[in-house]
Amino acid sequence: MGNCNVAPSSLVVQQHSDNAPRTWPHAALAIALAIGLHAALAAWLMADHPQAPEPTPPMPMPMPITVQWMPPPVAPPVAQPTPPEPTPQPAPEPPAPAPKPAPPEPKPAELPKPKAQPRTATSKPVAKPVAPAPSVAAPTPAPAAAPAPRPAPAAPQTTTAPIGRAGYLNNPPPVYPPAAARRHQEGTTMLRVHVLPNGRTDQVQVLQSSGVPALDEAAQAAVRQWTFIPAKRGDTPVEGWVNVPMAFKLAP
């Protein structure tokens, strides 16, 4: 029984293996035909119904330029000259009335003639006594004017020297030369300054050197920028000279 069951299965397998090579060409041919038909159909559709072109995006419109029509200016109407007004005719003057006859003048009444009177002797006028003229007294001489007092002698005006170190003048101090500071150079420079009436410096001279030219030059450069209280003669500002000592010392 076991052998009979095995034999049919082997035949079936053998049969499938024998038919496989015979059916493969037919299947491949069918597939190729199907692909060809689909390609032909697609070509026909493309030929009869061309693909619609893609819509192009709308171009942006530029901003419109507004143009306004202006009517031409209307010429003003020409003013017609007004006719001159007729001058009024003067009214005719009424005729002058006829002069009335003057009334007759009345005759003056006759006056009786005066009777002549006898003349009387005329008396001469009596001369009145003339009063004597009053005697005019001689004018008394005016008293002599007292001599004017002599003016007191003017007080001598004091002269003050210029001042340059007042607290409110804000004069900057000189700059210590860096080269002299590195060399530890110190000293005092005495300057003689000519101050004008407006307080500005005119001349700055070295009266006594510090021994270091750099220190002397720094002192002169600073004082040339200073403002002084000018010298005064009384209350009048005048030019003057002042000595300004300038000490250069390094901090310990």
From TrEMBL:
GO process terms (BP): protein transport; transmembrane transport
GO MF annotation list: energy transducer activity
Signal sequence range: none
SUPFAM superfamilies attached to this UniProt entry: TolA/TonB C-terminal domain
A Pfam match: TonB_C
Superkingdom assignment: Bacteria
Protein name: TonB
